[in-house]
């Protein structure tokens, strides 16, 4: 059985459009040419890939599975080409890395600076985003690796390697009404405003889950932010919102401005992990970055 790469490329375009006419227009070929592509693929595979109708074509059940195989093949081909080019160029190559917060970005940048000094011909693409989006970018083959936080009960589809552990702490300003409560319980926070990320962020979903587990609604969010920054810490220190910050940020001068709420349910243990695509062929650059990252995360 031989499947021509161009036929597979045309197959994916046909699937994306659902009509031979629009697929042919995008590819600059005729509809009969695309009909021949479908016939060749079905003859070579012995599978009925499409259902034909007056409104166009759509995949059969086995066609859906075949589509996923083609996508996997394309992704693996990309990694193979990257690996071959890396081996040819030795120190050359590109490493595509994602990260989430400012604190993790510092670790990633430090690691990249060491790696780039050792391999001056390499190129880097560094992007920031939310954990789930970075994982999807890896699955689609647009990123090689990502350094992200991992919260309990919120797994990723990507392969992950543990780099370290930390804890998220609920904080308020000094002299906040909650700071004066010597017998504070989580239920006392039910109507208090929070500063949290967007609804789909892991930290916010974790807080929502904790609230629900204690029969509480909310939490009410009066401030949405992307990252924990110095500006956000100053805002928490001057308002009545509750914030959730990494333990490694709770040091002077932050510790002089904020008070950690003694509500153990909201002291959230989490991991820092390195994400990669399941079953990916690791390039030498990826392996070098991983090794340096592990060293840097323990120092």
TrEMBL record:
PANTHER family: HTH-TYPE TRANSCRIPTIONAL REGULATOR YBHD. SUPFAM superfamilies: Periplasmic binding protein-like II, Winged helix' DNA-binding domain. It comes from Candidimonas nitroreducens. Gene3D superfamilies: 3.40.190.290, Winged helix-like DNA-binding domain superfamily/Winged helix DNA-binding domain. The keyword DNA-binding applies. This is LysR family transcriptional regulator. One of its GO terms (cellular component) is cytosol. Pfam families: HTH_1, LysR_substrate.
């Amino acid at each position: 059985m031989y499947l021509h790469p161009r036929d597979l490329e045309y197959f994916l375009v046909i699937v994306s459009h659902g009509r031979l006419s629009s697929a042919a227009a995008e590819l600059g070929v005729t509809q009969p040419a695309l009909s021949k592509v479908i016939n060749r693929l079905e003859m070579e595979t012995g599978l009925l890939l499409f259902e034909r109708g007056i409104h166009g074509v759509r995949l059969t059940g086995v066609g859906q599975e075949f589509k996923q195989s083609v996508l996997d093949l394309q992704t693996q081909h990309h990694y193979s080409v990257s690996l071959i080019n890396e081996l040819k160029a030795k120190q050359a190559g590109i490493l595509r890395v994602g990260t989430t917060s400012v604190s993790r970005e510092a670790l990633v940048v430090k690691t990249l600076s060491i790696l780039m000094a050792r391999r001056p011909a390499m190129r880097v693409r560094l992007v920031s985003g939310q954990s789930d989006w970075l994982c999807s970018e890896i699955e689609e083959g647009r990123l090689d690796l990502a350094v992200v936080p991992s919260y309990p009960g919120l797994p990723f589809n990507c392969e992950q390697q543990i780099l370290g552990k930390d804890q998220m702490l609920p904080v308020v300003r000094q002299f906040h009404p909650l700071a004066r409560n010597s017998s504070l319980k989580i239920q006392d926070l039910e109507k208090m405003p929070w500063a949290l990320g967007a609804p789909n962020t892991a930290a916010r979903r974790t807080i929502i889950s904790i609230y629900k587990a204690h029969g509480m609604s909310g939490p009410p969010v009066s401030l949405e932010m992307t990252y924990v920054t110095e500006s956000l810490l100053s805002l928490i220190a001057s308002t009545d919102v509750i914030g959730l910050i990494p333990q490694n940020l709770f040091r002077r001068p932050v510790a002089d401005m904020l008070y950690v709420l003694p509500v153990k349910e909201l002291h959230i243990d989490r991991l820092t992990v390195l994400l990669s695509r399941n079953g990916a062929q690791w390039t030498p650059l990826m392996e070098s970055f991983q090794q340096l990252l592990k060293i840097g995360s323990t120092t």
